[in-house]
Amino acid sequence: MYDDIIGAISTPLGEGGIAIVRVSGEGAIEKINKVFQPRAPGKDLRSRKPFTLTLGYIKDEEQGILDEVLVSIMKSPRSYTGEEMVEINCHGGALAAKRCLQRVLSLGIRLAQPGEFTQRAFLNGKMDAVQAEAVIDIIRAKTERGLKLALKQMEGKNSQYIKSLEDLLLEANMLLEASLDFSEDIGDLDYRRVRELMESSRDGIDKMLRAGELGDVYKEGISVAICGKPNVGKSSLLNALLRKERAIVTDVPGTTRDVIEEYVNIQGIPVKIIDTAGIRDTSDLVEKIGIDKARQAISEADLVVLVLDVEAGMTEEDMNIYRSLEKQERIILLINKDDLMAKNIKQKDIERHFSSLDVIWASTKDDIGIQSLAEMIEKKVTAGLADNEQLEFTVSLRQKELLKEARQYIQEVLEALELVPMDCLGVDMQNALISLGQLTGRDLKEESIDRIFREFCIGK
Length: 460
Ligand SMILES: Nc1nc2c(ncn2[C@@H]2O[C@H](COP(=O)(O)OP(=O)(O)OP(=O)(O)O)[C@@H](O)[C@H]2O)c(=O)[nH]1
Ligand SMILES: [Mg+2]
Hints:
Layout: E1 6-9, E2 18-24, H1 28-33, E3 36-38, E4 53-59, E5 65-74, E6 85-91, H2 94-105, E7 110-111, H3 116-123, H4 129-140, H5 144-155, H6 157-181, H7 183-186, H8 191-220, E8 222-227, H9 234-242, E9 260-266, E10 269-275, H10 285-300, E11 303-309, H11 316-324, E12 331-336, H12 347-353, E13 358-361, H13 370-382, H14 397-416, H15 422-440, H16 446-454
Parallel strand pairs: 1-7, 8-10, 8-11, 11-12, 12-13
Antiparallel strand pairs: 1-2, 2-6, 3-4, 4-5, 5-6, 9-10
């Protein structure tokens, strides 16, 4: 437990109905009570039950009213941080909340550092490190799906799974140690059993890493670049995906000059859609710069939608653009303007030139193929990642590093199992257990703890 009391505004700054000033630490109620005047007589904060709300006023230095507030109190250990807590609901708006906070700080309460409330929750055993990291993911979630994953992590789904992997290792370790200490009594080590245990913990780690990659898609999102020659309907496609007229659309080839980026939720995935300038040979300086930027954006995108125009037909320009694209597996071919009568691209042309690509026939004008494109994008980025056991995790970079580390140690034990003396196996075994322990935070060093919470905002 800490011996000082911390306070901060936990709601975003700016105009709003209310803001919350959060205070945590032993003696917080006593402190806040000094500047609180209940509206109904006798409702002194010290005499109130935990989890009750009290209406009243925060008083300024001259005993005048600073703000009308609603105060909730919580007692240790039943609070977010595990400590005694007070939450003051004051009026929102840049000034009102700040003045309330200043009054609180004038009582000798220290301004909380970023993430300090959650850090205290962690150090007081209210949550483990994996759960604490989930708090950041919850705050930053961009889609429903991302939020759901983060909530699962916070409930302890990852932690339980890691615990089950640890149990496998612990059992293997126990067998190793027992055979070292009491080899006369229990006979030879059951290598097969140790191998089995270690392999299933390694496979469990792999599963978690794979599921984590899928989780990343929903958490971090992906980028999709739309490319093609001028006038095929790239900007129209951007607008259709966004369902708003974001980019200028005209029948003049070379309309889009700059790279346009917009975010949209596609099947629960946060997707950055990038509309680019039509690629062609040109002497126009501005257009040339736009085309260079287009090429850059296309090379960096996770997926690329190559747009063709069914009326304009397939030209050398299209083929050149296609040939300049790297990594076939990230390309989706979209044949646009399929509403038009003039079909100058045929199914057999596609089969001949683009047999390896996923193809969508579309009309941005009639809203045909747009939903198929959304589904195709989801399918492509989740292919091979989806786990049939429905293990859904988000795995932070820190967790990923530790999982890989643990996996490496396990692998070393497995490779050496029957070849080296048993007491040499113990070190790698211990290291694997330490790596897993650091995941949930049990064996976490102080600097790693600080690193986790530095990412938070003040007030969380
Ligand atoms: N009939 C029909 N016309 C379309 C369709 N999609 C786009 N167009 C028309 O095609 C023309 C070009 O559309 P844009 O979206 O500006 O094309 P672009 O690929 O962004 O063109 P640049 O920015 O010049 O490279 C416009 O006149 C659109 O109205 C479609 O599905 N059907
Ligand atoms: Mg355009």
